[in-house]
Known about the structure:
globular; hydrolase; protease; binds zinc ion; alpha/beta; 11 helices; metal-binding; binds calcium ion
Amino acid sequence: xxxxxxxxxxxxxxxxxxPVQATxxxxxxxxxPAATPSAPVSAVLAAPDIxxxxxxxxxxxxxxxxxxxxxxRAHGRPGYRASVDYIRARLDAAGYTTTLQxxxxxxxTGYNLLAEWPRGDANNVIMAGxxxxxxxxxxxxxDNGSGSAALLxxxxxxxxxxxxxxxxxxxxxWGAEERGLVGSTYYVNNLPSADRSRIRGYLNFDxxxxxxxxxxxxxxxxxxxxxxxLQRVLAAPFAAMGVPTELTSVGGRSDHAAFARAGIPIxxxxxxxxxxxxxxxxxxxxGTAGQAYDRCYHASCDTTSNINATALDRNSDAIAQAxxxxxxx
Length: 329
Ligand code: TRP
Ligand code: CA
Ligand code: ZN
C-alpha cells in the first residue's frame, strides 16, 4: 500500500517539501533553504555536477570491450558479460551491494545487474535503470552505453558524497532489452509482490547522448498514477539549465514498460533514436533538421563518435538532480 507520495517520502524528516525541494536542488546553494541558519544539521545536500569526462571514460571502456569481443556487447555474447563485469567492479569498489540475476533467452544466459546503496528506508525504494546490452550489429555506445555510463557515474557520485538518503536507492542494468525487454520483464515478474510494492518509482535512461539530440522527457500520460511527479522531477533540471524539453510518449519501447505494467510510477529521459528532428526542434535545440536524432541507431557506427557530449552531460546532471530529489539526499 502506498501511503505517501514520492516527494513526501523523500521529504520525511527533512526541512524541504514538495516542489520547493525540486526547485532548490536545481539552484545554487545560495537559494537553497538548507543553507539558511534555521536549517537542521542533517541538511539536504545538493546533487553534485556529474563530471562528463568520467561518463565518457566509461563509454571508452564499453567501446574497448566491444572492440575486443567481436564488435558488440549483445545478449549471449562475451562483450555483454564483460560489460556487466566492468560496471559491477566499480560499484563493488564504491560500497554498493550488487547482485547478478541470470535468466535464459534464445538459448543463452543473460544477466541483470542490480546495485543497492545500503542506506535509507528499504520500504521506500527509488529505482533508476537502463539496458546494458547492444544489438549484434555494433558496440551500442549511444544505445545504450550512454544511459549505462551515466547511471554508473551517478551511482559513484552517491558514494563520493557518502549519501545518507531518506529513501533507498537501487540501480538496474538490464540484459536482453534488444531481444524484447527480456531482462527488465524477468526482474519485475520475479519480484515478490511485497518487494514490488516497496518501489515508489522507476526512472529509465535509454539513449541520452544522441548525436543530433532532442531533449525528451517521458510523458506521464497513460502511465501509472504518480508518474506525473517523476515527469516534473526529470523536467525541472532542464528548466534550470535553460534547455527546453518536449514530452514523448514512450509506449512499450524500453525497460520502463514492465514497471508500468506492475503499476509502478515511471519516468525517463531520451534524446531520440531513428526519428527525424524537425526544423522547430533544430531552432530550439540546435543540430540538423530533417536528419535522424541518431543516424547510427542499431548500426555498426554507434561508436564513441556517435555521442553528443553536451546532451550526455546535461542528461547525466539531470539524472543526478532527479535522483537526489527523490531519495531525499
Ligand atoms: N529502446 C529502443 C532501443 O533500445 C530505443 C528507443 C526507441 C527508445 N524509442 C524509444 C527508448 C523511446 C526510450 C524511449 O533500441
Ligand atoms: Ca556535468
Ligand atoms: Zn536502447
